[in-house]
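Predicting holo structure, S-adenosylmethionine bound.
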Amino acid sequence: MDRIPALKVPQRHAQLYKKHLLALAVLDKQYCVQKHSDGTVTLPILPTSVKHLNLLSLQSSVDPNGSCEIINIQTPQFSRKGKVKSCRERIIDAVQPLVVSRGEKWKQELEDDIPRGWQRHEDLVLFGEGYFSQKIWTELGCELWLAVSHALGVKRIAQITRVSQDGYRTPVVTMLLGDSSCVAHIDNHIRYEFDVTKCMFSFGNITEKLRIASFNCSGETVVDLYAGIGYFTLPYLVHARARHVHACEWNPDAAAALQRNLQLNKVRERCTVHQGDNRLLSLSDIADRVNLGLIPSSEEGWPVACRLLKRETGGILHIHQNITTPVPHQELHKFSDSQSTDVVDSKEAEKASLKNPRDRVVWYCWAKNTAKSIESLLQEITKKTWATNIKHIEHVKSYAPHINHIVLDLECKPIKYICRQEIDFALPGTLNMFSDIHK
Ligand SMILES: C[S@@+](CC[C@H](N)C(=O)[O-])C[C@H]1O[C@@H](n2cnc3c(N)ncnc32)[C@H](O)[C@@H]1O
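Done. Tokens:
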């Protein structure tokens, strides 16, 4: 159980001590003041302020003949204020006194430098890049991270400093507090373990993970061309019951985490991990389904995906893409103040884009062109004629204002398998395939 520092004072002077602690900005307002049966009261103190607190001077201003001491108390209860405050407000409350104790003023630039959103994995928070960039934070060092960890109730802090351009999309993550960078994440009954300094976890793809989990892939062979630590490979195996998944991943750290996650989720024997560049994969003519989960575009994987589809019966390609909707002139000013992609802004962008039917027209045009390109690739590779059918377009997330991450489910069949009725269905209007875009 966590312990926090508190000032133990006689009950009769508690109000006065509280006033002084408030004036010094060291009272930890997120926790309750507690009365004890021995006639004392404990007043929670911000952990980072303990060493700045002059007990003698405090005591002499309240009760020169009495006594007070700092103790650690267990099971602190959140005060009403602590309960209703947002996490960001709690960070600000915790770091403000540190800045003031250094003789600096609390300024808007400092407040703007506090992140609005972050990833949380167990007792570790991962901040995005571009925050805590002011000089004072570096000067405060460990003191700052202890205060932030206390405010968020975590033990480890890490931050993305930049995403490297080495093709691995390896996040450059630095541990700021705590040693171990290994975390576990459970969603939809699947356990993912990985090292935050070596692999990336995409929270934004949860809707797609759930959709895959709802597929019935029993008897199917699936290829996941961009497997990462198993974000999609595992739902295919655990929930969609794929007979076998071939998972391709070229980042050795992600491939190792994937192997471990297959083991943890007891599906190891139904998966083959191909570590290396998927474009060099020697397999062909084996897949009922190919997952192409790479953004901004998976186009480089289209030829290999076409080669993998079963020549006799065809299959389905799940093609991910970030699509930008051109912005009409009058809408530009609406987002001009919100170009930073923090959590709040992207939610606004999502609301705006879902309201916008123009997005869907743009996505459908892209899907039609993609279907044509895939038909040509299939013909080139197999020397046969193929037909494609846009089965569904799934909106995964708003990536940035006017940029949406979508998945096209494209059914591909060699032409001898198409009967007249299916050809009619292969040329639908734009409506039915968007049926669940608003969910
Ligand atoms: C953005 S992650 C996507 C992971 C997962 N599909 C998702 O959307 O959350 C892309 C993964 O594909 C891997 N990758 C990219 N290009 C690759 C290639 N040509 N061959 C094998 N793996 C590749 C990267 O290392 C990375 O782990």
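Residues 168-169, 202, 205, 226, 228, 231-232, 248-251, 254, 277-279, 293-294 surround S-adenosylmethionine (CB under 6 Å).
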